[in-house]
Amino acid sequence: MTRSSSAVRESLCRADKPYSPGRRLLGRRLALFAAGALAAFAFAGKPAQAQEFPTRAITMVVPFAAGGPTDTVARLIAESMSKSLGQQVVVENVGGAGGTRGAGQVAKATPDGYTVLVHHIGQATSATLYRKLAYNVLTDFTEMGLITDVPMTMIAKKDFAPTSIPELIAYVKENKDKIVYGNAGVGSASHLCGMLFMSALDTQMTTVPYQGTGPAMNDLVGGQIDLMCDQTTNTTGQIKSGKVKAYGVTTPARVKSLPDLPTFDEAGLKGFEVAVWHGMYGPKGVPPEVVAKLNGALKAALQDPKVIARFADLGTEPVALDRATPEVHKAFVASEVAKWKPVIEKAGVFAD
């Protein structure tokens, strides 16, 4: 049965009339729902970590055992960064394989900013030192800023014959087969310093690797080995107590905690410069907004009076803020890889 023409016209007229109050309310609700859905979609399109980072604790991996110099640096930084970020930065020690185990763990972590790495110069030297590295030093990390440069000191047993840097250089060249140089193990800072020293002199010494700085230092103090190069964090106390003979520092400027100790540069050995720098990293692909927040907290830590004072006790100081940037850090790592590659290859010392 068909509707009459008048009924049809009446229906059309109703359709052309303004909404009733009920229809208006329904329309508003639909509009609000649509707007909310669009906002939720846009919000969901952004990485969660970029919205309110951080919302939970951050893990700071140290690729060495607790109590060492890198662990000390990391814990000082972590404590200060926790205050700035409003969340705990928890240090986790993942030692083994010269620091490459912990670094590899961070390289494979989710790039959300909740896992970071604090590593020293070994981050750059591992690119050449290890034949089978599970990650690419230059492409598998997000650099977040340099932290500090720890100077190195060349020290010897108390009764070692040379009394100055020039005498030491001459003595090493003339007696290379009789000198025993100790280090804390392959890839350690003392190992790297020794390799660079021998490269600078174009000579070799008998090298004895130990399982850590402690045993090597004990044998040096006891006179079982002749020579060693290590961080001021490990040598300052021994030097001040007179248990070892100190020759010089390996940085361009003298160290404030050891002002009477000359630099190798001022003694005439140009190019022999090495410091155990530390930097902070995340996995590849951490969002720029998260990197910026972590870098800001790092810079605040480097200006923290407590951190500065404790670093001074360790014979070091925070880097200048213009070096604590992701861009400078990234370029610096690349330059260090290039610097150490020929030294390591010339020495012919590699690890699997």
From TrEMBL:
This is Tripartite tricarboxylate transporter substrate binding protein BugD. It comes from Ancylobacter crimeensis. Belongs to the UPF0065 (bug) family. PANTHER family: BLR1237 PROTEIN, TRICARBOXYLATE-BINDING PROTEIN. InterPro entries: BUG, Bug_dom1. It comes from the Bacteria. It holds the Pfam family TctC. Coiled coil: none annotated.
